[in-house]
Design a protein that fits this description.
With about 90 residues, the protein is an all-alpha fold. It has one domain. Helix content is about 60%, strand content about 0%.
């Protein structure tokens, strides 16, 4: 399937739509939006793009799009809870 969209002329001067790398980034952005909305997993998005999950996450990170959608404080809190459980504590 192929999709088209209108691009403002002011933007078109800076975009090489024939560049495969640029086309991949556009597809990544669409996939990330689907992932962000809970419609697609990172793994499935990577599969559809023909790249590894780690590469997808890395590429999106380079675009400033986070893999985690929670504050760092929650990540650290979850890690502390996981450590307590792995050490046999409750």
């Amino acid at each position: 399937m192929q999709a088209t969209f209108d691009m403002p002329e002011a933007v078109s001067r800076f975009v090489d739509v024939q560049d495969n790398g640029y086309q991949l980034r556009l597809k990544e952005m669409m996939m990330f939006d689907l992932v962000r909305r809970g419609l697609l997993s990172f793994g499935k998005a990577a599969e559809l793009l023909g790249i590894g999950k780690v590469k997808l996450i890395t590429d999106l990170g380079q675009l400033g799009l986070p893999y985690f959608d929670m504050p760092a404080s929650e990540v650290f809190e979850d890690a502390a809870v996981a450590r307590r459980f792995s050490e046999g504590g409750a």
